Amino acid sequence: MYAFHEGGGIPVVDPSSADGVFSLLWLVVALPLAGAAILLIGGKYTDRWGHLLGAALPIGSFALSLAMFVSLLGREEDDRQVVQELYTWFQTGHLDVGMDLLYDPLSALFLLLITGVGSLIHVYSIGYMAHDPRRRRFFGYLNLFVAAMLMLVLSENYLGLFLGWEGVGLASYLLIGFWQHKPSAAAAAKKAFVINRVGDMGMSLAIMLFFITFGSTSFAVISAGAGEASQTTMTILGLLLLLGACGKSAQFPLQAWLLDAMEGPTPVSALIHAATMVTAGVYLVVRSNFVFELAPDAQTVVVIVAVISLLWGAWIGCAKDDIKKALAGSTMSQIGYMMLGAGLGVAGYAFAIFHLLTHGFFKANMFLGAGSVMHGMNDDVDMRHYGAVRKAMPVTYLTFAMGYLAIIGFPGFSGFWSKDKIIETALADNWIVGLCALLGAGITGFYMTRLMLMTFFGEKRWERDVHPHESPSVMTIPLIVLAALSVLGGVMLAGDWIVDFLSPVTGVAPHEDPPLPAIAVTVIAVCVVAIGVALAWFLVGKREVPRVAPQEVSFVTRAGREEVYGNVINDTLVVNPGRHLTSALLTTDKYVVDGVLTGGPVTIGVAAQVGRRVQNGFVRSYALSILGGALLVALALLAVNAV
Amino acid sequence: MDDVTPYVVLSGILFTIGCVGVLTRRNAIVVFMSVELMLNASNLALVAFAKQHGNLDGQIAAFFVMVVAAAEVVVGLAIIMTIFRTRRSASVDDASLLKY
């Protein structure tokens, strides 16, 4: 059953207890977790079959998720929230945290995405990591990643969500730094971890504030009591949650780790960027809709952050020559679209999730495709060394093209439906935001076309000794499945199915007449994208692509290559002041604190060095001092007696 | 009441000679003799003051000093002899190993 807050359109979380197939809910998390445990504890004994087990368990989770999804569809629309109370996690004072899992339409879709796309990535990794001596460990980490993400989206309270949240952070650290012999990979892993920590700070503060305000961290309790808290509290909560979301989802100003995270193996990039990790922030905002609906100021900030990230990421994507980094910039931009949808409130939540799902398909597709290209090009990532790959790798080319058409929003493809809906909603809300989203769509068309042209078309610019060949079928089959999903993902919008399906979680938007008819927005969006694509054709496709990146370029390009100075800003504002602070503290500790503490003993020591010279070993000098002492005593006695 | 001033003055002179002897002479035997001189100077003073006060307290103290001085001579001379045997020298400045 679900009820609504008075006045607002936001439903209260009020689940029924789990029965039937839903009683297996815990298994969805437990399977990959068990995989991680077996592979990481079993060590080299599991080397021979570890990757097969690692790939089979997420597939098992996917089968369960699918069964539960079908079962959920069979239920009445107002009875689609199920909670499974496993055990009391801990109990202290008034805080009683249960290990409870919540299965509702939102987590159902996430479960399908995470286990579905995650399984495909696992299968692909069997081929991609075939020659890596540490493949078994890689699969252990992948399973841990999936388990943590599933915990994140299934938990019924913020603490359980935080458990998954931190688990995802740990697994991403392990995977980004998987090739730990490379200093750059180790540094990237550390950077991702540290920047995520800033966001986690916001999360943990939000959880504490939830407990103080509502006496609980359960979604059910908080959503029921949300109306009674003051608006200031809600705004603070919203901003803290947004900080957490920015860290995980690589949104401005915590975006700098995302591009460095490309140091990890390519399936990891696909997993981080498509199915897990970066989507966690969007999930958090949508899940916490009962907070954001009551904090309009926080929602405005979400929109601002989203728009900045959307354009920032697109800018980076235009200038990078590294295929994975260009895609990473694109991820940041697309997550910006999702955040934008989530920031627009009830009207946008469902579209944010819709775009998240379609993006999960086409971005996983393109990352795995990029991995396939790299596989054929001896792990070269520089697009200036590609060109004309389409003939050598036809399957990769065709599947990548499906992802490409989806992300730029070619009419009929999945990305077209989802992005169009977000732009439409944004235009209805605020025309400046809407125009920024439109501009972002145009830039998306530009940078994706540039990537496509530089990689698959034009002349061969290959390095010597490079003989591209199509990847094995264990890698191409996941690509084909994902390409199909990229094409057909839009079917979820048929008859507004996804909006209706998610309404028990996100609420029902009041119907308003948009300022522009939907078809007009669509036509404008397609035109803007077409301009972007045409620009890329004239600037990249019609010209010779230099094998070495030209240095005499405009400020815009240079800034894009430097990731719009994100690292410089971080270094100037945080890292360097921090370094100066620590070195100042170290100096203070060494000379002031230590000086005070050791000064006394040091003084006494120096005095003793001088004083011990008196003990010179000559009996006669001792006799003199005895005489002197005796005289002093005698004089003192005389003086005392005289008085 | 007899005037004991000359005895006390003599005692002071003897004590000063002994003091200077201890501080300035290097030969252990001479130093030793100077110590004896100081002890005897104090004995003289004790006896003189006993005479002045008309009781025997000072005399008894003087006897104690003599006994103790005799014992000290036994030990002291034994040490000096041992040092001389090992180092072929009776100079107190040579025996200066016990220092910082």
Describe the protein:
The complex is a heterodimer of chains A (643) and B (100). Chain A has 643 residues and is mostly helical. Chain A contains 25 helices and 5 strands. In chain A, 71% of the residues lie in helices and 4% in strands. Residues 1-8 of chain A have low confidence and may be disordered. Chain A has a 3-stranded mixed β-sheet with strand order 3-4-5. In chain A, strands 1-2 form a two-stranded antiparallel sheet. Chain B has 3 helices and no strands. Chain B has helices spanning 5-24, 28-53, 57-87. Chain B is 77% helix and 0% strand. The mean pLDDT of chain B is 90. Chain B is elongated and about 50 Å long. Chain B is mostly helical and 100 residues long. Chain A binds chain B through residues 612-613, 615-620, 623-624, 627, and chain B through 19, 22-24, 26, 31, 92-93, 95-100.
Listing every helix as H and every strand as E from the N terminus to the C terminus, the arrangement of chain B reads: HHH
Specify the biggest β-sheet of chain B. none
Helix proportion of chain B: over 70%
Q: Could you tell me which chain pair has the largest interface and how many residues each side has?
A: A-B, 11 and 14 residues
Quick check: average pLDDT of chain B? 90
Mean of residue pLDDT values of chain A: 86
Shape of chain B: elongated
Rg of chain B? 17 Å
Q: Say how many strands of chain A there are.
A: 5
Our estimate of the beta-strand percent of chain B is under 5%
Put simply, the count of helices of chain A is 25
**Low-pLDDT stretches of chain B:** none
From the alpha-carbon coordinates, what is the Rg of chain A to the nearest angstrom?
A: 31 Å
Shape of chain A: globular
